[in-house]
Amino acid sequence: MSNFIIKPAVRTKNITYAVRDIVVLANEVAKTGKEMLYLNIGDPNLYDFEPPRHMIEATYKAMIDNKNGYSPSSGIKQAVDAIEREAERKGISNIHDIFVSTGASEAIELAVTALVNEGENVLTPSPGYPLYTAIASKLQAFENPYYLNEENGWQPDIEDIKSKINDKTKGIIIINPNNPTGSNCSKETLKQLIDLAVEKNLVIFADEIYDKLLFDGKEHISLASVNPDAPVVTFGGLSKNYMVPGFRIGWGVVSGQKEMLKDYIEAINKMLRARLSANHPEQYGIPPALEGSQEHLTIAMEKLTRRRDMTYEMLNAVPGISCVKPEGSFYAFPKLEINNTDNHFVAELIKETGVVVVPGTGFGQVPGTKHFRVVFLPQDDVLEKAYKNIAAFYEKYVDKFEKIVE
What we know:
- This protein has 406 residues and is of the alpha/beta class.
- The protein folds into 2 domains: 10-50 and 295-405, Aspartate Aminotransferase, domain 1 (Alpha-Beta Complex); 53-291, Aspartate Aminotransferase, domain 2.
- 40% of the residues lie in helices and 17% in strands.
- The chain has 12 helices and 15 strands.
- It has helices spanning 18-30, 53-64, 77-89, 103-113, 131-138, 158-164, 187-200, 258-274, 286-291, 295-316, 342-353, 380-405, and strands spanning 37-38, 95-102, 121-126, 142-149, 155-156, 169-175, 203-207, 232-237, 249-255, 321-322, 331-332, 335-336, 355-356, 358-359, 370-375.
- The strands form 3 sheets. Strands 2-9-8-7-6-3-4-5 form an 8-stranded mixed β-sheet, sandwiched between helices. Strands 10, 11, 12, 14 and 15 form a 5-stranded antiparallel β-sheet that branches. Strands 1-13 form a two-stranded parallel sheet.
- Helix 10 (295-316) packs parallel to helix 12 (380-405).
């Protein structure tokens, strides 16, 4: 054999996914026999959450009826029509295209890829979901993060966004409710954001995958509903609201002025046709999910509210840890008062306690700040034990490592 080394593409160099990367260490610790408490993966099905039965039955019937071949590239008519009605219920109008995708992740990647050339950029929230920076890396686009303001409930910092826009900026991404912070944007923030995008001729990508998971009677406002003429691609899916992340069913809704969007829409559809279709039988679950009983959400939100409150109260009770109260989703993003990196803190936490969280660097954060993300999907007793372990560990960590740094 020769000594030839196959070199991977440069575009893969900066791709990381902290949510799963941390599992490598967790697996090593688990081999020692330590009890592991996983607070790192946002998968409701790993815990005591179930999807609505009528959605599952509709999907099963489609398989039995042999809807197992390719679907139309943009999705079956029943699903597309149901998504359109759902968008209209959210106040979105001026809709010109809807497409069903392999999870919201594929919809996002298709929409961004159809817009951004090598060397250009889209503004991405920081903290934000790492998918967006991975897409930028694959496209060899420049990363252009804007910051969320922790002092203002993790709302997007509009002044920071203004300062980051340049002649290579093509769009703005907003995750609302936000992963990893659990924030929910106010109408005033959304209006400022969309007015800025219109002024600068930018497309807004609105990731609203958690739009039904809101606490304390909070209202979710769909960004595209604020201005029907603005070019917006709104993303949704079954994964989180309907507790089936493994279905890999999502969608995109393109709205705004038609003449402005027609070439862009065709570019998206070129890629949709080239990849054939999303999962076919599971698309039959979309209409009953969106338009059937939502009782599963009532049950889920009772559990999540209790677990959100436990997360907020127990973590804020730890000296040196502070946490903004999440208003949506099932994540919290506590702040650490430490000198070391959050990567170091999390690695030591996993080794010492078996509690698996994700370091804040995996999601982006204001330079100089340190955080970690927790998923509060697990059962109450698991969360209580994990937070007690974190509290005890934090004190040991400061004694062992922080004094050395100082």
